[in-house]
Design brief:
The complex is a heterodimer. By secondary structure, chain A is mostly helical. Chain A has two domains: about 70 residues, no CATH class; about 250 residues, MetI-like fold, CATH 1.10.3720.10. Chain A is about 75% helix and about 0% strand. Chain A has 14 helices and no strands. In chain B, the strands form six sheets. In chain B, strands 3, 12, 13, 14, 15, 16, 17, 18, 19, 20 and 21 form an eleven-stranded mixed sheet that branches. A four-stranded antiparallel sheet of chain B has the order 6-7-9-8. In chain B, strands 1-2 form a two-stranded antiparallel sheet. The longest helix of chain B has 18 residues. Chain B has a domain of about 160 residues: Alpha-Beta Complex (Dipeptide-binding Protein, domain 1). Chain B is built from 18 helices and 23 strands. Classes of the chains: A mainly alpha, B alpha+beta. Chains A and B meet through helix 2, helix 3, helix 5, helix 7 and helix 9 of A and strand 2, strand 3, strand 14, helix 8 and helix 14 of B.
Chain lengths: ~325, ~550
């Protein structure tokens, strides 16, 4: 029984991934951008164009191109990225950890600030704290990331000098440590090089905070809403009547009951940060996944785009599975 | 490279975030490294045979791979020795002999010979990438590469020509270009890959790690992040002053400007006019403006019956406020130019003669009336969605509307714009083109000469073919100029062509590109030319 459920789950994941790849591939090929021009430029003559067109396999039927790509991918070969000239796998081995590092710190900030703020706003509804939370939520949700990034750089980097500028490290630290994992903070700790570690912290803190603004806004507003719903339930009044303190009721009863919903939105917010950080990555010259995917799309580079789509799909499916596991841990009724 | 002394800041920012205290580097670049920020999005290869975009050309040509000859930085139409110390041409003009220096070495110390140089040129033809046209347009062919390009001893390279071209023209058009660099033949052969029976002549290997004779070598390239060059201490020329060159990928102008102002980079390569204006008052920053050999223009497709009329095409030239554009939309980016040969190239018309037009709506109206369209007409212009093209197109469309011509604008991604142009799928196209060598021939051979105007000829590399226009007299004059060995007579022929094309041609040029680069004043002798940027001369 359990085995068939696992098989069904695996089949569903595979079908989803295949559908996602096919949709991306065929839609990508319908875009008016020409990957050959992205490689050879406007000056090249027709012979060069035809040669590269053939080399890229574009003279084959679309379905053949797709099947060839799938076959290569199953052998672990994502091919070359046209717009970087490197192997897609090696590009992603650099870009993906850079984004995970950024998004993870951003989600920690977003959750660390958003959840307490949302709880406080609900508990002290219509108080200055609530107004502050709503105001911050509005700014976080509506301020354009690009603008926030530039403003952040001008204030905290250029004027106050509290943080380092764009990039993952100062140029003085380039080549300072071996890339064991691709995560600079972890690699610096592995190497025991605290200069590099603190420099990386100095560089990541501003873009992570800017990236966190949006998720913080979403998380705080939804936390407030979930908490308000719980606080209006009769069991809360009962718990208070039994003599429990206000904060004990909030912590042990109301907050515990919103955890399942919170896990869902945090998982979604994290997945969104992983593939939606392109503007932050552009402003902060962060060599990450979002910018890589966008550049690949603009160049019509299907090798790079499909590999990215595959990763995004895996992230979403993976986070959903993690969220499902957390549900059963947090809510005994779902076991 | 020395690390900066560690310092601790008191980050009030920590109130928002994770850390209570953070160690950080001082805002200063290392003394022995030149740090540049640039948008490196276009960078896809370091193989000199394949390079066709500005990033790769800038980094490789002259910095990682020395060319056989060099442009004189003071006058790019004059050639200087480089890896080749001298050259001579046979009396019949059909054999060019280049004598290479005896002290050429690759970064690992082994000698570079004329055989390496010959192989490097031959593989350009075999690979057939964009650079191949640099050779094929002078009669070199893939099938005859081995006979046409030969090493007769370790230091002598002999080229057999199909026609007696002027030697200065050949040196400029071929031997100062990216294709005329010396790659390590042994490494290329050893690392060559064969697909469908074709060798890649080490292309997959060299595209990320070129092994060349040059002042620097590539030590690191992380795509869309950073390129690091290390000094080659056995380079034959003057020893580069900076041990390292670091190019950081910073795609956003404002971020580049802040990095420059804070001293975290030495040179900013891609700043917007707004950011350049803001930097003007900063005494620590120098802004260098270099006149490039590139032109912006409106191409008119003469397959369209209205645009086939030369009076209509001339009328369009009077709809452009050349000076106005240069002072506003193109500030720091362009200066007025109407001739097809950029200022600074051999045989180019001077500044005044090369820009005879002004905004003159009455004259434009008179011309379209004489052409038989007194009530105007409607046309569509395709253009890039970049930062400047929409404003330029709106300017032209707005002036056109004043005399009854309706121009609809269609913005698109560059690759789509180029594809539409190459397919002749446009009426008006706002676009640009860069000459590949500083001689009138570079532009005339592509923008005036059209060997075959038929659509099926598919001469897509010729912008003039894309417009469907052809003039056999111009073709003949251009051919004659290409073979004319007397510089005065060549200049006279090109002068006639330029003046004719300015009034009758299918392409209305309006600006010559300026490249602004900003650097901290502590940087000295950073030499910027229209074709190459010499990293090795810089110090600080």
């Amino acid at each position: 029984m359990r085995l068939s459920r696992v098989a069904r789950g695996a089949g569903s994941v595979l079908a989803t991934m295949l559908g996602l790849l096919a949709l991306t591939f065929f839609m990508g090929r319908m875009l008016p951008n020409d990957p050959v021009i992205a490689v050879i430029g406007d000056h090249a003559d027709q012979a060069t164009y035809d040669m590269v067109y053939h080399q890229l396999g574009l003279d084959k039927p679309l379905t053949t191109q797709f099947l060839l790509y799938l076959g290569a991918m199953l052998r672990g070969d994502f091919g070359n990225a046209l717009f970087t000239g490197h192997r897609v796998a090696s590009d992603l081995a650099r870009a993906f950890p850079a984004t995970i590092e950024l998004a993870t710190i951003a989600i920690v900030i977003g959750v660390g600030l958003g959840v307490p703020l949302g709880v406080a706003a609900a508990v002290f509804r219509n108080s200055p704290i609530d107004y502050l939370a709503r105001c911050l939520g509005l700014i976080g949700a509506s301020a354009p990331t690009f603008w926030l990034g530039i403003m952040g750089l001008m204030v905290f980097y250029a004027s106050l000098g509290w943080v380092a500028g764009p990039g993952r490290l100062d140029v003085s630290f380039i080549d300072s440590i071996e890339p064991h994992t691709g995560f600079l903070l972890i690699d610096a700790l592995i190497e025991g090089d605290m200069d590099v570690f603190w420099n990386a912290v100095d560089h990541i803190i501003l873009p992570a905070s800017i990236l966190a603004a949006g998720s913080m806004a979403t998380i705080s507003r939804l936390t407030r809403s979930f908490m308000l719903e719980q606080l209006s339930q009769e069991y809360i009044v009962t718990a208070r009547a039994k003599g429990l303190s206000k904060w004990a009721v909030i912590r042990r009863h109301a907050f515990r009951n919103i955890l399942v919903q919170l896990v869902t939105i945090i998982a979604l917010a994290y997945a969104f940060l992983l593939e939606g950080a392109v503007l932050t990555e552009t402003v902060f010259a962060w060599p990450g996944f979002g910018r890589y995917l966008t550049a690949g799309l603009l160049a019509g580079d299907m090798n790079a785009v499909l590999a990215c789509v595959l990763i995004v799909g895996v992230i979403f499916i993976g986070l959903n599975m993690v969220a499902d596991l957390l549900y059963t841990w947090l809510d005994p009724r779902t076991r | 490279m020395n690390r900066p002394a560690r310092s601790f800041r008191l980050p009030a920012f920590a109130a928002l975030a994770l850390v209570a205290a953070s160690g950080a580097a001082q805002a200063a670049t290392p003394r022995d490294a030149l740090v540049m920020a640039w948008n490196l999005d276009a960078l896809i290869t370091f193989d000199p045979a394949q390079i066709g975009e500005v990033n790769g050309n800038d980094i490789i040509v002259g910095n990682v791979c020395s060319t056989l000859v060099n442009y004189d930085p003071k006058d790019v139409s004059h050639m200087l020795p480089s890896a080749a110390e001298s050259w001579s041409v046979s009396p019949d003009g059909l054999t060019l002999t280049l004598k290479l220096r005896a002290d050429l070495k690759f970064p690992d110390g082994h000698a570079a010979t004329a055989a390496d140089a010959a192989w490097s040129l031959q593989r350009v033809l075999q690979l057939g990438f964009f650079g191949a046209a640099t050779l094929t347009q002078w009669g070199f062919t893939k099938d005859h590469a081995l006979e046409q390009i030969r090493a007769t001893d370790d230091h002598t390279l002999v080229l057999t020509l199909d026609k007696p071209y002027p030697v200065d023209l050949l040196l400029s058009a071929i031997f100062a270009q990216n294709v005329a660099t010396i790659l390590d033949r042994d490494a290329g052969t050893k690392n060559a890959k064969t697909t469908e029976g074709r060798s890649d002549y080490g292309n997959a290997f060299f595209k990320t790690a070129p092994i060349c004779v040059g002042p620097y070598h590539v030590s690191r390239w992380d795509a869309n992040d950073v390129v690091v060059l290390e000094r080659n201490d056995i380079y034959f020329g003057p020893k580069p002053k900076m041990r390292r060159i670091i190019l950081r990928h910073v795609p956003e102008s404002s971020a580049e400007r802040l990095l420059l102002e804070k001293g975290d980079i030495d040179i900013a390569r891609l700043l917007s006019p707004e950011d350049l204006k803001a930097l003007e008052a900063n005494k620590d920053i120098h802004i260098e403006q270099t006149l490039m050999q590139s032109l912006s223009y409106v191409a008119m497709n003469t397959d369209d019956p209205i645009l086939a009329n030369p009076k209509v095409r001339e009328a369009l030239r009077y709809l452009i406020d050349y000076d106005g554009l240069a002072k506003t939309v193109l500030q720091y980016q362009g200066q007025p130019r109407a001739s097809l040969v950029p200022e600074g190239a051999f045989a180019a018309l001077d500044h005044t003669e090369g820009e005879p037009f002004t905004l003159d709506l009455a004259k434009a109206k008179q011309l379209i009336t004489e052409a038989g369209y007194p009530d105007g007409f409607s046309k569509k212009m395709i253009l890039s969605a970049n930062s400047t093209s929409p404003a330029i197109a709106q300017h032209i469309a707005s002036n056109a509307a004043k005399i009854g011509i309706k121009i609809d604008l269609e913005q698109m991604a560059d690759s789509n714009l180029f594809t539409r142009g190459r397919n002749r799928d446009f009426q008006l196209q706002l676009v640009g083109w860069g000459a590949t060598y500083p001689d009138a021939d570079s532009m005339v051979s592509r923008h005036a000469t059209n060997p075959d105007k038929r659509t099926e000829a598919k001469l897509t590399g010729y912008p003039v073919w894309r417009t469907g226009w052809q003039n056999l007299d111009i073709n003949a004059k251009a051919d004659a100029a290409r073979l004319e060995r007397d510089p005065a007579r060549r200049t006279a022929i090109y002068r006639d062509i330029q003046i004719f094309m300015m009034h009758n041609g299918p392409i209305a040029y309006f600006a010559q590109t300026i490249r602004p680069i900003a650097w901290r004043t502590m940087v000295k002798d950073f030499s910027v030319g229209p074709f190459t940027v010499d990293y090795g001369s810089a110090s600080k």
